[in-house]
Amino acid sequence: MSSKESKEGETKTAGHMLPNRLTIQPPNPGTPSVDAMYIGFHPEKMDELEILEGEYVVINGSQGLKVIGRAHGNNDCGKDDMFVCTESRKNLKKKTSDTATVYKVSMIEEQLGAGKQGGINCVPALEITLATSSVQNYDHFANEQLEGLVRSVFERDYNREAQGRAMYKKALINIPVPGAGRDMLFRVEEIKTQWSGKKLSKYSVPHDGKFGMVCSTTVIKIGADIKDKKLKEGLKKTGYADIGGLKKELKKIRELVELPLRHPKLFTSIGVKPPKGVLMHGPPGTGKTMIARAIANETDCTFRIVNGPEIIGGAKGQSEENIRKLFAEAIEEAPSIIFIDEIDAIAPNRDKVQDEQMQRVVATLLTEMDGMKKNAHVMVIGATNRPNSLDPALRRSGRFGKFFFGVVFVLVPSCCKYYYCELLCFIIFLVLI
Question: What is the pLDDT, as a whole number, of residue 99?
Fold first, then answer.
């Protein structure tokens, strides 16, 4: 075999493992789009991805969201497009013409000497737990009735295909209420399969076992009611795509925050301590809080937002206790992000503040940051528009310092600058007239 042929073979093998980015389009009228599992591809694209008709594929959406569907060939679909139904687009938090990556489902257990081949494409669910809110269930259906409504939808799917319908943890599903002319929104709280608790190979797709195909043998349970706001929180989460004009600042802060949280072994393998904190400063309204929320959502971390003045308590020692409790809860729920807005309110320069309570608050904050272990997987993000009023000890190395810290100056978005210039030119034009 020539070196050229060998190189082409290696490229093809590597391409099989890499994601394929396709444009999401709604199914054309007449396609079986009523099937929520339907994912349409051009036949040539299926051959290129080595996906057979009816096999399961996983689509990676925004903020770590995933959807698993069944691949079908469709000549009406563009070669670089894929047909995705409305419910799946909602669970991916993607709109028409957005792009997403597609993989073939292949579950492989981590074992010594295990190869890349022989993955399992179908993963039957043993048990699935769904939950809704009292706002959705205003007819006050009992759990037995809700189970019947949910099962009727899944029956329609596994009667069409015996393998059933694939559901991901935290996925939303609309369940029609007979005779009421409305749908009830449910969220998948838990799924148990034969892969639950098993260590998966690095070649396994997807890399977690948080999904399963609901079939005739699956036990369906209804969990306790959750708040309607929590039920719909996935639909309103801020992501990177929602932030415009801050590309440079977003790239810098992602390097400082996202890498330590998502790839902590990267730092330990080269013997570098991961950063503990990032300080964002800039004029009010430039997107500091939005950036922090987007990072927490995209990295799938617990996000705890605290306004500086809220920490200050009236009783003696209450402020210090609030800070200790905040850090203890964040470490327990790691990986997590603590976002302290207006951090200058709780960490002023002690040389310029005579209040003994504020000096104790600053000392407690410094102690808690120093006390975090390097593998705590907790990141502290501070935001202020007065960086010079912060205590100098907070900005030293190891806290918000030079080597283990990042300062990101959030400017006015570049797109806003353009419109400001346009507006200014228009005003000058009116004045000259």
Answer: 85
